[in-house]
């Protein structure tokens, strides 16, 4: 029978945590990519979508992408940090649209610049961002609970 010292068990626990963090990062990366595809789709197919979806979902999905991107970077932090961080980021981008000078408007005129920086300040965008981030946060909380439940169930399985 082989015994493990505390230091070797800490090393094993650290390996498990690192493996979990990479899996979580991969899941958040997939979420970011899905949000990008859905957001671009909401713009590209806006004429085929219901008016409410075409008008509001693009900005909400952009905010979802920001939330999941922060979660991907800060996978070991509390969910509330990504919630407030993404809210701050999205609001800062929106308020930056009040700043209109030729050099930044030139950047906004490009496709990527327009997608990232937007074109002009709209108060309704703040509501769209808030809804998108809160929906992402709620979904993330639900997924976190499922992961914890699955881990507990796996812990109860007998070793082979």
Question: Would you mind describing this structure in some detail?
Answer:
With 160 residues, the protein is an all-alpha fold. The protein has one domain. It contains six helices and no strands. Helix 2 packs across helix 6 (123-156). The chain is elongated. The two termini are 16 Å apart.
Question: What distinguishing features does this structure have?
Answer:
mainly alpha; 160 residues; 6 helices
The helix fraction, in percent, is over 70%
Q: Could you say which structural class the secondary elements and strand pairing correspond to?
A: mainly alpha
Spell out the helices and strands N to C.
HHHHHH
- Poorly predicted sequence stretches spanning 5 or more consecutive residues: none
Topology, pairings included?
Blueprint: H1 6-44, H2 51-73, H3 79-96, H4 102-108, H5 111-117, H6 123-156
Helix pairs in contact: 1-2, 2-3, 2-6, 3-6
Summarize the structure.
With 160 residues, this protein is mostly helical. It has helices at residues 6-44, 51-73, 79-96, 102-108, 111-117, 123-156.
């Amino acid at each position: 029978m082989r015994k493990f010292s505390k230091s070797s068990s800490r090393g094993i626990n650290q390996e498990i945590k690192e493996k979990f963090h990479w899996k979580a990062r991969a899941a958040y990366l997939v979420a970011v990519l899905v949000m990008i595809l859905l957001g671009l789709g909401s713009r590209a197919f806006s004429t085929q979508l219901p008016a409410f979806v075409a008008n509001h979902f693009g900005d909400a999905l952009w905010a979802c992408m920001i939330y999941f991107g922060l979660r991907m970077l800060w996978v070991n932090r509390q969910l509330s940090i990504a919630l407030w961080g993404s809210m701050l980021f999205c609001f800062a981008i929106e308020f930056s649209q009040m700043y209109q000078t030729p050099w930044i408007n030139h950047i906004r005129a490009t496709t990527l610049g327009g997608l990232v920086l937007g074109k002009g300040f709209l108060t309704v965008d703040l509501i769209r961002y808030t809804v998108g981030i809160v929906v992402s946060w709620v979904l993330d909380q639900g997924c976190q609970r499922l992961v914890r439940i699955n881990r507990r169930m796996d812990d109860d399985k007998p070793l082979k």
